[in-house]
Task: inverse folding
């Protein structure tokens, strides 16, 4: 494959993935509103288009035409930078996620992954942790106490979870002997080889930490709307607010994709094409996210700290130990 | 503490998750308001209407009992006399902004002429349109409900 072909193919893949992810973000909001609505005996959006399917477009248009209001006391540079810092890392994660098997188009063998890094998992950890800076910076630069509290909470939450987040995957890495997500998926071609069966405790810990990492209920302390107005994005409006929102949903989809890739066999599955299997698994995990939000109340601040340090962290360590002894 | 935690995770969590997924499949209670209207309760007290006899003459004789019973002082009336020498209300106005929809007028009326209907959508943006005249009240009569039945209902209540 020549360099030109490589560049062109990569650009095409990137554009397709970006469009797909942004559309998925828009429809994740729809899915969430619909599911939460039905959990609460409501209908959810149903006026814009059939089953309210045009609602995300209506929301986007509404947000785009809102006034971009900047309060007086903000730190201008950081204030305008923060949404980007929250938004871009969320999209970066998709660079290493394999969406499907190798396909052959026009004589080129193309991997359905933008770039198969040999340190893929480390890359994901590095990039997803960056997202929290957007929240902290937004909270700090807004010049509002609610935003500041949201940002502080977010950083405290990140410190409590990041360790367990990393440790919960060590078990998988010990077994897999690789950091590459593509190889991880290839190892799970057999249904019972899925890492959810080989690492059940690791899976549970990772899912909990992923939810905390993406600031979703029951760990949505940074934007606790009943306590902090809207948390870190209180002072944001228009497209900047939209950017936080898309960032949050992109983060959710990224976390769902990571869990799918590492624990649920990625694109592996019978009959249906691999890309479809990947989408189905991600969709189911997104529905699970919403299900959790519809079920559990928000953790209190001290409960969260206790849970992170006294439960998740020791359990992750135990998991690493057990795995190390078994797969010596 | 550890036992409580295990109990929460193994019993309370699955219970909660089961409850929320169970409710997804129940019928939503939402009423799609402007398109679908709620069936009002028979005793609901909405906008007033004046009842007539079967031949179309008004039942109201302008006795003033409703105005006397009205705690909000919302009813204004002036009597008149028709060609047969019978008394009737020449002017009968209810100020809907003063009215508290208590239903005392309906209760006080000896001729069973005034009733509170089921209509509840009468917002407007100027005060004058809330003066509710006799002509409006006569046209506001619900057609579908037999008059006798309503009287029986009202009498049963009070």
Result:
């Amino acid at each position: 494959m020549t360099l030109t072909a490589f560049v062109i193919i990569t650009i095409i893949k990137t554009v397709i993935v970006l469009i797909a992810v942004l559309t998925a973000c828009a429809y994740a909001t729809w899915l969430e509103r619909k599911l939460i609505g039905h959990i609460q005996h409501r209908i959810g959006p149903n006026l814009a288009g059939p089953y309210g399917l045009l609602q995300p477009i209506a929301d986007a248009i509404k947000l785009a035409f809102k006034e971009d209001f900047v309060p007086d006391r903000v730190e201008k540079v950081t204030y305008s930078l923060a949404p980007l810092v929250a938004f871009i890392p969320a999209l970066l994660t998709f660079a290493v996620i394999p969406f499907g098997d190798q396909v052959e188009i026009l004589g080129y063998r193309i991997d359905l992954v933008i770039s198969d890094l040999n340190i893929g998992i480390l890359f994901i950890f590095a990039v997803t942790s960056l997202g929290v800076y957007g929240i902290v910076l937004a909270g700090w630069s807004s010049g509002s106490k609610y935003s500041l509290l949201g940002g502080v909470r977010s950083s405290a939450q990140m410190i409590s979870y990041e360790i367990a987040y990393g440790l919960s995957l060590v078990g998988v890495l010990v077994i897999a002997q690789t950091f590459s997500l593509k190889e991880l998926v290839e190892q799970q071609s057999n249904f019972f080889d899925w890492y959810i069966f080989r690492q059940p405790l690791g899976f549970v810990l990772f899912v909990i930490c992923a939810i905390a990492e993406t600031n979703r209920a029951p760990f949505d302390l940074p934007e606790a709307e009943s306590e902090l107005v809207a948390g870190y994005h209180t002072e944001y409006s228009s497209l900047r607010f939209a950017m936080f929102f898309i960032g949050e949903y992109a983060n959710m989809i990224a976390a769902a994709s990571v869990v799918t890739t590492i624990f649920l066999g990625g694109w592996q599955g019978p009959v249906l094409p691999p890309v479809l299997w990947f989408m189905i698994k991600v969709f189911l995990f997104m529905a699970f996210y919403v299900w959790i939000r519809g079920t559990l109340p928000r953790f209190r601040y001290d409960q969260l700290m206790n849970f992170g340090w006294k439960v998740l962290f020791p359990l992750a360590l135990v998991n690493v130990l057990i795995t190390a002894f078994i797969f010596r | 503490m550890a036992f409580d935690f295990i109990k929460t995770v193994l019993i309370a969590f699955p219970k909660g998750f089961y409850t929320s997924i169970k409710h997804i499949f129940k019928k939503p209670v939402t009423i799609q308001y402007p398109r679908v209207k709620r069936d009002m309760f028979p005793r609901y007290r909405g906008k007033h209407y004046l009842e007539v006899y079967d031949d179309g003459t008004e039942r109201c004789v302008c006795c003033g009992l409703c105005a006397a019973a009205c705690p909000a002082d919302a009813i204004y009336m002036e009597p008149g006399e028709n060609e047969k020498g019978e008394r009737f209300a020449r002017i009968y106005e209810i100020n809907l902004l003063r009215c508290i929809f208590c239903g005392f007028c309906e209760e006080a009326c000896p001729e069973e002429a005034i009733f509170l209907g089921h209509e509840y959508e009468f917002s407007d943006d100027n005060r004058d349109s809330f003066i509710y005249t006799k002509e409006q009240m006569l046209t506001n009569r619900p057609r579908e409900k037999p008059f006798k039945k309503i009287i029986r209902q009202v009498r049963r209540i009070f």
